[in-house]
Amino acid sequence: MTLRLGDIAPDFEQASSDGNIRFHDWLGNSWGVLFSHPADFTPVCTTELGLTAKLKDEFARRNVKVIALSVDPVASHLAWIEDINDTQGTTVNFPILADADRKVSELYDLIHPNASSTHTVRSVFVIDPAKKIRLTLTYPASTGRNFNELLRVIDSLQLTEYHSVATPANWQQGDEVVIVPSLQDEDLIRQKFPKGYRALRPYLRLTPQPG
């Protein structure tokens, strides 16, 4: 199954390190990050899960719930969590799905035979409160994920969801944003963007970040 942006994230019920999880019910009205790992006790993923735990407040501030996945069983996850807590100086505070039957991996197309016929690739899905997939990223096994970039994209998605803007290259919180080309009514533009804007081209109009 190939998932594209705008698709509804497949629902499932699966065991996890925090007990059974019915995914859509667990998400509720929150944004979600689902990220997969090839196996337990892998070095790069150990650092990633430790960093995720340390970013708990950053995710909570954005109304984001985080859930990880590995093809190993719950007992293995619980032992791995002890290692993560010890080596990364943190406490894992989110569930890790136990996908030994590959049910979730198949729903989310996480088994890529050219990479591995048994282990999942390292993918990330950002899911909005309507359960739609808003971002997909897939990393090679050798490269740790950039969580600053993940938070940046979530900030952009949430800003652009509620305002008529897009974010330019390398945008960070507080930078100028782009007024979407479809918004042409000048009265409405003045209402939405009281600080004004500067037009580099008719299609490229920059304005201070709203909100």
Account of the protein in words:
By secondary structure, this protein is α+β, with helices and mostly antiparallel strands. It has two domains: 7-145, 3-Layer(aba) Sandwich (Glutaredoxin), CATH 3.40.30.10; 163-208, Antioxidant, Horf6, Chain A, domain2 (Antioxidant, Horf6, Chain A, domain 2, 2-Layer Sandwich). It is built from seven helices and eleven strands. A five-stranded mixed β-sheet has the order 5-4-3-6-7. Strands 8-9-11-10 form a four-stranded antiparallel β-sheet. The mean pLDDT is 93.
For the record, the CATH architecture of the largest domain stands as 3-Layer(aba) Sandwich
Biggest pleated-sheet summary:
5 strands, mixed
Distance between the termini: 38 Å
Instruction: Give the strand line-up of the largest sheet.
Output: 5-4-3-6-7
Task: Specify the structural class.
Answer: alpha+beta
Rounded to an integer in angstroms, the radius of gyration calculated over CA atoms is 19 Å
Assembly status: single chain
Tell me the fraction of residues in β-strands, as a range. Answer: 15-25%
* Shape summary: elongated
Q: Could you give the count of β-strands?
A: 11
- Written as H for each helix and E for each strand, in order along the chain, the element string is EEHEHHEHEHEEHEEHEE
Helix content: 25-40%
- Low-pLDDT stretches are none
